[in-house]
Amino acid sequence: MQSLWSKTIQLPRRESLQGDISVENVVIGAGLAGLLTAYFLQKKGKQVIVLEAARIAGGQTQNTTAKLTSQHGLIYDEMIKKAGKDRAMGYAMANESAVNAYEKLIKEEGISCDFERLPSFLYTTNPSEVHKLRQEAQAAAALGLPAHFMEQDGKKELPFAVEGAVCFENQAQFHPLKLIQALAPKLTIYENTNVLSVKQHRIIYQRTADREQPDSKEGLDNSSSRKTGVITAGNSVFATHYPFLIIPGFYFLRQHQERSYVLALEGDGVPRRLSGIYYGIGQGGLSFRSAEGKLLLGGGSRRTGKKECACAETGYSYLRKQAQTYYPKAQEKACWAAQDCMTHDRIPFIGKYSVFRPYWYTATGFGKWGMTASMLAALIISDMICGSLNPYQGIFSPQRFLLRAGIKNFLIDAGESAAGLTKGFFGGKQTRCTHMGCRLTWNEEERSWDCPCHGSRYDEKKNVLDNPAQPESSTN
Ligand SMILES: Cc1cc2nc3c(=O)[nH]c(=O)nc-3n(C[C@H](O)[C@H](O)[C@H](O)COP(=O)(O)OP(=O)(O)OC[C@H]3O[C@@H](n4cnc5c(N)ncnc54)[C@H](O)[C@@H]3O)c2cc1C
Question: Total structural domains in the chain?
C-alpha cells in the first residue's frame, strides 16, 4: 500500500555496489536518518557512502506523516518528574533546534518540499484528561518551549468538540520524499546492497534482487559477477531503523516496535487544508494534518505483533470507522502503515553503538518522532565523527543509564520477549521469527506474520518486510 508521499514522488534508481572497497565512513540505511547523516558528514568534508538494502527511503520514512515538532505527546511533565528538569530541557531544546535545522537546510539548498510553519496541538476530547494537558502546557512552557494551554480548539478544524489542547507555536510539516529527492543526488548511495554482517571495520554486503524490477540486471539474478563484497570502513553508522546485530549493543533488550496507520481522505466535508497539526492523547487518539489537498488521518496504534485487545480497536479498521463517523462522504485516496522503535525512557538512542566499538554509531528508538530525531542523529553523529562536541550528545547517548521511567517498560518488554520465545520454542519453524526465535502472530488486516517481541514482519511467503530480522542468508 503506497503512501501519499510515494504516490506523488518517484525517486531515481541507484546501482548496487560491486567489488571490495575502502571508505572513510559508511552509513548503513538510506532512510531519513541515514541520508541526513551522510549529507552532514559530506558537508563537513568527510568521505561517505550510503548502503541501502532495498530502495532509498523505502523503509519507514516513506510511510511517515512528516510532522516536524518538539511536541511528542504527553512527555515533558513526566520527563521532568522522572529524569529531571535539565534532561527534559535538553530534549526539548534539541527537538526545537532540529525543526530549525530543517528550515535552514531547506533554505540553504533551495529545496521545495512543502515545508510550512504552523502550530501543533495536543488535544483531548475527554474532560477527565484536561488536567493532564494543563500540566503538560505548564511543564513545556517552564522548559522554554513556545507552549500554552487552550480551553478549546478555537479554530474548530477538527470534526469533534475538543475539551482542551496544548498549543506549541511555530512547528512545521513537510513532504519527506521531496526533501530526499533533492538531497539524494548530492550523495553516493548504493541501492539493493544489503549489509550481512559487520565485524570491527569489515562490512560484508550482498547485492540483492530488486523486488520492483525482477528482470533487472542488478541483483541476485545477475550471475556474471560476485554477489557479495567487503568494505573496509573507518566508521560505520547503523541507520537501519532497528540495529540488526544482536551483539554488541543488545538493542533487542532496550526497545520494542509499535505500528500505526494512516488514511488520506478527500471529498465533501473533508478539509483540504488545516492550519495546524493535531495529535490526540489517550487510547484511540487521532492524528491530523493536511498534505497535497488531502486530510491525513492517523492512529490505530498497537504494539507490532500484538492482537487487538477487547478494550480497544486498532489498525485500518479502527481508522476507517472513525473516518466513516466524522467524514461520512470521504473517499479514501491512500492508506499506509509504518512502525517505530520505542525505547524504555522515550528518548532515542543516538551516538556510539557500543563502548566496545568506538567507531560504530547508531540512530534508533525514534518513538514515532523520527523526523526531528533523524535530524538530531545527523547533527550529533556527524559532529562526533568530526571530533566536535555536540551539546545534545549526552542526552541521547545509547550508553546512558536506565532511568526510573525506563525500568517498568524494560520489565514489560522482557516479559513479552520471554513469552514470545517460549511460544516460539514450542511452535513450528514456519511461525518462528528468524531474528531470535519468537513465535510470530498472523496479522489478517495486513496479511503478514508479525513478531510481538521485537517487531520484525514477514509477508505470506516469509520474505522479511520489516527488521530487525534480516533475509535468510544474513548472519551476525
Ligand atoms: C505511522 C507513523 C507516522 C509517523 N509520523 C511521524 C511524524 O509525523 N513526525 C515524526 O517526527 N516522526 C514520525 N514517525 C516516525 C518516523 O517516520 C520514523 O522514525 C523515521 O521515518 C525513521 O527513519 P529511519 O531513517 O530511522 O528508518 P527507515 O526509513 O526505516 O530507514 C532505514 C533503512 O535502512 C535500510 N536497512 C535496514 N537494514 C539494512 C541492511 N542490513 N543493509 C542495508 N540497509 C538496511 C532499510 O531498507 C531502510 O531503508 C512516524 C512513524 C509512524 C509509524
Answer: 3
